[in-house]
């Protein structure tokens, strides 16, 4: 589906303070958080470390295979097998006939490393825990951006939506990402010239009526902070799959334009009054 170009470029999402031992400190400010210094064993597009093109049996909710928790070659250090619970709702309360709120569960560092090796990416095992932290951090921020969009159409008394399923599409650049690449080529001093290092499509379900909305998420590298910490930017928006989503995208785009004009003092005289056309 086509993506609107009415909304502004993604806002930069900065990671506050990576650990001093984080491999990100030794990496360039652009590119995927996974190190690609050594060529992969098998040809595969850069992006999400999960092999989405696998012919093995995949989980239909996340398009990922079952990842083992056992060490594999060439792993040199032991990695934790504990998995972290996210804040992203997986099912609506009561859907499984329980009173507990279920959330998505992130892969353990061991599973993450196994996925990297499976895809042919050479990443030191001692750095994987930090990479997993960054991966989880970005997904939490992405969900926060999804909720901002959902609040614009929520009705009084609505329950929080939840993530029904998702799919990584690292080899497929969205139309909007292509537009920003073209803008960067034409005006490199104003727009980013680097493509997103990953893309996800998230299917969000609204408990009120079961409506499903597809969100497109482009993950970008951004400029480092003043103290050298790596920066990331997320462009999260509903796909143009329905008239409601088109309305949302246009409205948000216009709001951003008017806000920028107000910040520049457009339409105001030096005395604080509104300028009149002559």
Write structural notes for this entry.
The chain is α+β, with helices and mostly antiparallel strands and 278 residues long. Helices cover 24% and strands 16% of the residues. The protein contains four helices and seven strands; from the N terminus they run E-E-E-H-H-E-H-E-E-E-H. A five-stranded antiparallel β-sheet has the order 1-7-6-5-4. A two-stranded antiparallel sheet has the order 2-3. 27% of the residues are buried.
How would you briefly describe this protein structure?
The chain has helices at residues 109-119, 128-151, 175-186, 243-263, and strands spanning 12-14, 85-89, 103-105, 162-168, 198-205, 212-222, 231-238. By secondary structure, the protein is of the alpha+beta class. Strand 5 and strand 6 form a beta hairpin.
Features:
about 280 residues; alpha+beta; 4 helices
Radius of gyration: 21 Å
Shape: globular
Strand content: 15-25%
Strands in their spatial order, largest beta sheet: 1-7-6-5-4
Low-confidence stretches: 1-9, 11-31, 33-55, 269-278
State the helix count. Answer: 4
Roughly what is the average pLDDT, rounded to an integer? 75
Task: Tell me roughly what share of residues is in helical segments.
Answer: 10-25%
Structural class: alpha+beta
Characterize the biggest β-sheet.
5 strands, antiparallel
Q: Helix and strand succession?
A: EEEHHEHEEEH
| Number of extended strands | 7
Q: Terminal Cα separation, in Å?
A: 44 Å
